[in-house]
Amino acid sequence: MPTPNSSVVHILRQMGLDLLRESRYNKNYRDSRSNFDEVTLMQFNESLQLLMDETETTPRQLAKALRISLVMLRNYTRGTDEPDIELLKRMAAYFHVSTDYLVGYEGE
Q: Which long-range contacts (CB under 8 A, 24 or more apart) does 25-33 make?
């Protein structure tokens, strides 16, 4: 059964940037991740925190602008959860950066 935005998910997985939690779509998801996935997630939460610090954006301001809860935002900044692709695009637009920048991808 195809998942929502399955072509986007496929492309991100090919790039090694699996930002969507597979558990949302796959009941057989194992919570173990490859080292690359952990590094990508760490880079994302660090990028998000850095942007918030540089722009002096409070968690409350960002959560309100993105229409998400403070708990959800806290999980992203702590690295315990990952945003879906639509939220990732809204974050990039809010901070005027690319989604590649947010996830720490530096293509050649």
A: none
